[in-house]
Fold:
Amino acid sequence: MRPIQLTARTMLCALAALPLAASAQDLLIRNARVHTVTERGTLERTDVLVRNGRIAAVGTGLAAAGATVIDANGRPLTPGLFGGITALGVVEVSLEKSTVDNDPHAAERDKAAEPRPEFDVTLAFNPDSAVIGVNRVEGITHAMIAPGAVSGDTVIAGQGAVARLDGRAEAIVTPSRTLFANLNAGVSRAGQFMQLEQATREAKPTPQMRDADFRLLTPTGREVLARYLSGGRIVFSVDRATDIRQVLAFAQKQGTRPVILGGAQAWQVAGPLAQARVPVVLDPLVDLPDSFDQLGATLENAARLHKAGVRIAFTNLNDGTHNARKVRQAAGVAVAHGLPWDAALAALTANPAEIFGVGAEFGRIAPGYVADLVLWSGDPFEVTTVAEQVWIDGRAQSMRSRQTELRDRYRPAVR
Amino acid sequence: MNRLCLLLVALAVCATGARAADDPYPSTYQPAASQPTLIRNATVLDGTGRRLDGADVLMRDGKIVAVGTGLAADGATVVDAGGRWVTPGLIDVHSHLGVYASPGVTAHQDGNEATDPVTAGVWAEHGVWPQDPGFYTALAGGVTTLQVLPGSANLIGGRGVTLRNVAGTTMQEMKFPGAPHGLKMACGENPKRVYGGKGRSPSTRMGNVAGYRQAFADAQDYRRQWEKYERELAAYEAQAQDGKHSRRKGEGDAKPPTQPKRDLRLETLVGAMDGEIQVHIHCYRADEMAVMLDLAREFGFKVAAFHHGVEAYKIADRLAQEGVCGALWADWWGFKMEAYDAIWENIAFVDAPANGCAIVHSDSAEGIQRLNQEAAKAMARGQRAGLAIPPERAIRWITSNGARSLGVAGEVGTLEPGKRADVVLWNRDPFSVYALADRVYVDGALRYDRAAPPAPPESDFLLGQPAGGAL
Structure:
């Protein structure tokens, strides 16, 4: 097959998108099936007005002089999707070390078992990564950028935060900052709790402790961990039911707000999780025991947790970075296995926003909310559906990526 | 047929194992007893490219009898599809179920004999653990036939085995009777990383190709040794026979030739060159696939399929011309450099040329459960790129095209009369994220029924576990 030149059509698309991306202006999306992810639910034939990057109104017959008007023709409009727990912008090619910035121990392999709460992966975030563009055109407008050792070898891997994925330099959403702990490292769990306990004592020392008692954390690490222990948010990567119970006990004792990541057996402790208001970020596709910690893995995990009143959000645990875009397929699979459709959309929008502390601004289509929006060709969970237009802060994003460029270079002649 | 064995077979010394017919680890698979079954009023995608609405599928004695409208039940159990969809049983040409079984503990790492870059003598079937719970979850996804391959650490990793996806206590109970072996080869980063990391060859793509070439050159030499032996043996036998009759003095004293030592590695490569073994090559980049096609020509073997082939779309016409399938993912990419140029439309572009052969493969215990959805993604993106890909065409990517690459197209992959009655009844259009297999028939026997999941679970491993049940 011979490469072909850019067609007039693709040129036109590229040109059309650019001016919109370049300037914020008022936007009126008319006649959409609006999934608000609020108490208003889904609104048919409804308009959404965006002013200054925020949603100004949701209703019918809206008008705005000078606004860019888009006719949705009844197609679904959702909030921009949360891409899950990812390494977007901090990993370009997973096996190429020179492009991997999410490993807290890359610069000190001999200390791979040491907790590193002070490791802040967001400092390496590259808003221009091609991996971001590939996911943005699929409706992913923001994601948690997490340290890479969440399934690695240390009990505290460092800090991450939600990043906005429109290429802006100041992409990190500060209130979403989160510490990542890991109890799936494949070494003794008792040893990990021992380390966690010691780290905690060092971060919140008693007056009796002497210099020799501080053996695990650096001074910076102690400061950072102390912050998260006083009401901060800590994601615990953990699958086994009994380990989840231990996390709940630890969090209650320390006064932290835990989030369960993975939670293959979380449905077995759904009651305690709901009671403690502890959310679970899970991959709905996990149904095989990859380890002895996941013997109860089931495609109904999401449905059972939701039914029990646990707040859930979705992530792709298999390849959450390059294929973060797969979360909407996973949401559809969760629906096929009992999760209500609206709950699945919430798990990609409002729920992760709430879980990571930005629920007042992200994840819903309501006045005052950030205008991160996606117009879909059909049911957003369907594998045959595509995102037709993505807006971030009300700005139309280019719907081209490195992959669409390759596609158009090698597109065969239409038969 | 293997030329070596063809030469030797008359002399009854052909126990080399290179011939499928002489498989020393033979299949003991037996189709389960089945009732004649008529599925009525279904939307049927038959795997040949046809779609039949409001159609019936009749199975009897484990075979497809007929597909059409208004078929007579003739005593068969009638299943009213009520407009639901029917497809052939799905085929995954790239699985590591059983050799990288769940749970993924160290004891279950049986897929890569990563001790030498050429381990053509190892067979995946000798590492398959039939209790892998992943076989059942794949069945729930409609998969009735799968090829289990060795991994890609090695240049030539060994033989793959094609299995019927049925519960068995032994691998042999699952083995597809008469299916040819596969040969797993690997291009690119994996072999050079694994062996370069050990300070030995290959450490570069140059070393990779030198490694394949030397292995096949050795196999050519090995084949010549056996051919020479065979000629000498035939001459000796003829002479002895002649001597018996004529008893001429001084004749018949010649010694019989010495049989060459069997070499299991080279035996496999000879089998590939002789067309007895289907060659499956893990290869991502277009330029490397082109080198492998030249390698195949140099040594006279045929490539059945390139696997992963993230850049296959760049040489789609060449693959079609050479009759080589692309066994591909819908959306995996970026985990290594050679996977950086992925596009959604890869499968559709490989399918597009005349004689194009696109296959959706999984390489994953998760992906194998939803091959229909992977195909749907590729279909939709192909359609948006302007290609006419109706569901009846796309279903071939997960049925008949896979069967072709495995060398079992005469038995499975379509719903043509006489084929094995591997049939999936879906609760709706299978190209939907909400689609679930309601019923899966293998050789006409109902092996999976969503309405009546097995309790306790089929896998011995899951039995008696407090958590209970993978589904």
Notes: The radius of gyration of chain A is 22 Å. Residues 62 and 89 of chain A are 38 Å apart (CA to CA). Residues 81-362 of chain A form a domain with the TIM Barrel fold (CATH 3.20.20.140).
